[in-house]
Amino acid sequence: xxxxxxxxxxxxxxxxxxxxxxxxxxxxxxxxxxxxxxxxxxxxxxxxxxxxxxxxxxxxxxxxxxxxxxxxxxxxxxxxxxxxxxxxxxxxxxxxxxxxxxxxxxxxxxxxxxxxxxxxxxxxxxxxxxxxxxxxxxxxxxxxxxxxxxxxxxxxxxxxxxxxxxxxxxxxxxxxxxxxxxxxxxxxxxxxxxxxxxxxxxxxxxxxxxxxxxxxxxxxxxxxxxxxxxxxxxxxxxxxxxxxxxxxxxxxxxxxxxxxxxxxxxxxxxxxxxxxx
Length: 277
Fold this sequence. Notes:
It comes from Paracoccus tibetensis. By secondary structure, this protein is an alpha/beta fold.
């Protein structure tokens, strides 16, 4: 019996109990209080069908705290969602080999901003292209632009640079140098854009050629934008979609939980930083 227990890495008492029929079979997980959570979780999953159990937990706890109730453990949410078939389906895809040059994330806000573009097609064939600036620490989308059936120009990039500086600092120039990490697209490397960036107090930094993953913060936002908003929203035409993008960005900043921010949204994280400053 000892040899068998050591081989199976179980206690001898467990094996003896099984042989004598004294070990009770494990029952299915159940807590009476879960019945109160099911309607809440179902509503959240319906509203945000691309969220996994951890982000659903973050949103659920945000609601519970606002009502003065105790927060819920993510394991409990997982088991509840599993019991009611609310979990996301797993995707078994081979992860590509990425070589990351440098670390994008920084220790505080307004040290490094990242910028990139996005593109998607409406149901009527209109093509929406846009660009944005995101802070590499607090993950807030500071400024953005979108155009229809055209490319993002250097003028568009300069506009969002100016808007970002005005929103973060309330002036036309950053009080300290802010790194601006982008790819090597023509709107970013244009001479006028470089001169304008220096006038604003921004230091242009570029990712290595053919290495978009080096701007991983921006790539992650584009993926989230398409997964959580574009793919689950009707996109009949460009006019309709242009009216939606602002709401998507606001929802992302206000509500989207980030694992790197301890499942807080960008605005929650910024508010907590300001409260302790």
